[in-house]
Design brief:
With 465 residues, the protein is an alpha/beta fold. The protein has helices at 50-80, 87-117, 199-212, 231-237, 251-254, 276-279, 300-304, 329-333, 335-338, 358-364, 366-380, 388-395, 439-444, and strands at 188-194, 219-225, 242-247, 286-290, 294-296, 313-315, 317-318, 348-349, 353-357, 400-401, 430-432. The chain has 13 helices and eleven strands. It is globular. The two termini are 31 Å apart.
């Protein structure tokens, strides 16, 4: 192979001590969640920023209120010496006064809130503004040049170095490059999604796999897309790559998706993994599914050769995790729903790294089982975490365990705060930035966590001059 792994990232090499940091130093700050939908309808200054318009209105009302109170005070004093005035008159003045005081206090309180909160509107420069009113913990990818933010033209990647198999590798069918022999039994099959939001991460993941594989020409990539214009970009970045693009129709899951703790977890392509058995050719009997926010620092053939025994999927399990937190209290209090785990010992596993036996999956019909739980979720709201809980409901307790080295997950930090994380103890074969923070966004915003430097050597993105 022409290219070699970056120094310090050889498989199982000890990581620099300086990278084993604790706490959240360098963590990315959460975005404020402000949305223009909160603007009051009565604002008279639509062209001004919200805080300015609100305060100007409050000041105007304050001036009017003071004038009214002055005139009211004069009337009240006059009333005090007018013993022939009727009680009804005094009652009317008192009512009007109270209405104005309530209005004034409301505007004054709102103005004070805006004064206190106004620094939060200035805490992020324009290049790192939030995507939505949700607390997503991630920053917008800055569009380069004049390309539209939602078009592939805004991305430019360097061409990856050439790669080739070692002498001891089985001969790969050269016709795969033309897309005619995906059924070659010597291939290692890897499935990854490609979308504009995570495209930079997907390209880095592919690059890392090729860098550390002894037989890179024997790897076949199955790219799941909802945008049909990405194939040319992949081909120009990896001219030798054996791959095929599969279109996943978002409408398949549009009515099954429910709201989640992060907007990114609600994207239809995040559910494409549920349909791998239908999308891939029937001759593909096994596949490794990988998320787009990871890099592999070991030979992926080792993961491919994992024995699943009688199980349908294999993944690193984390049985020390509090499994109950992945479902609502309503779920656990309903014996009919919670009974889904009867007779098994469920453990948490991350669905971003899985080895899947597609033959068994097709035979049992697991796709439909996952869909049924998503339908129950739409009706009863039994979880909050996107595509993960249906997998736990169907497979937890029936997973072939894989070494933890194959999913050092959670490096993206907390789903709300975006804090930095350390590695779990033990050797490392795969680094996974699951969570709200993504290394390319933090590196670009100069708010990188220490471990983000381990992702950078695989980044092929070409920044605009």
């Amino acid at each position: 192979m022409d290219s070699v792994p970056p120094r310090g990232l050889m498989p199982h090499a000890p990581l620099p001590g300086s990278l084993r940091s604790h706490g959240s130093n360098g963590g990315i700050a959460s975005a404020s969640g402000f949305s223009s939908s909160f603007l009051p309808s009565f604002l008279p200054f639509p062209s001004l920023p919200f805080p300015c318009a609100f305060l100007l209105r409050a000041l105007a009302d304050l001036k009017a209120t003071l004038s009214f109170l002055r005139s009211s005070l004069s009337s009240i004093l006059a009333d005090r010496f007018d013993f022939k005035s009727k009680k009804r008159k005094r009652r009317g003045i008192f009512t009007a006064k109270m209405m104005w005081i309530l209005r004034f206090s409301g505007f004054f309180s709102a103005a004070m809130v805006m004064v206190v909160l106004s620094p939060s509107f200035q805490s992020f420069p324009p290049a790192v503004a939030t995507r939505s009113s949700r607390i997503d913990g991630s920053l917008q990818f800055p569009a380069d040049g004049g390309a539209a933010p939602g078009s592939p033209e805004r991305f430019s990647f360097r061409r990856a170095s050439a790669f080739r198999n070692a002498d001891e590798c089985s001969p790969a069918d050269g016709s795969v490059l033309g897309g005619t022999s995906v059924c070659d039994p010597n291939l290692v099959h890897v499935a990854i999604t490609l979308d504009l939001e995570y495209l930079r991460g997907s390209i880095a993941a592919v690059h890392s796999i090729l860098q550390h594989s002894k037989c890179p020409e024997s790897i076949f990539f199955h790219f799941l897309v909802s945008e049909t214009s990405l194939e040319t970009l992949v081909r120009s970045t990896f001219p030798q790559l054996k791959f095929k693009v599969y279109y996943f129709d978002p409408e398949i899951v549009r009515d099954l998706i429910s709201t989640s703790v992060r907007q990114a977890l609600e994207q239809p392509l995040n559910y494409a993994r549920n349909y791998l058995a239908d999308l891939l050719e029937p001759c593909v009997s096994r596949v490794i599914y990988l998320d787009s926010d990871l890099v592999v620092v070991d030979d992926i053939a080792k993961l491919w050769s994992t024995s699943l025994g009688s199980r349908t999927i294999g993944a690193p399990e984390y049985c020390h995790a509090n499994f109950t937190k992945y479902f609502t209290g309503g779920f656990w209090s309903n014996s009919r729903l919670a009974g889904a785990f009867a007779g098994r010992t469920p453990c948490y596993f991350n669905t971003g790294v899985m080895v899947i036996d597609l033959t068994k999956w097709r035979r049992v019909g697991y796709t439909r089982r996952i869909e049924r739980w998503m339908e129950i979720q739409k009706r009863d709201r039994i979880y909050e975490l996107g595509s993960l809980p249906p997998f736990l409901l169907v497979f937890a307790g029936h997973v072939a365990p894989i070494e933890h080295r194959w999913n050092q997950h959670g490096l993206g930090g907390d789903n709300v705060r975006g804090s930095c994380r350390d590695l779990h103890p033990g050797p490392v074969s795969l680094l996974h930035w699951s969570g709200s923070g993504k290394p390319w966004l933090r590196l670009d915003s100069r708010q990188a966590c220490p471990l983000d430097s381990l992702w950078a050597p695989y980044d092929l993105y070409r920044h605009s001059p």
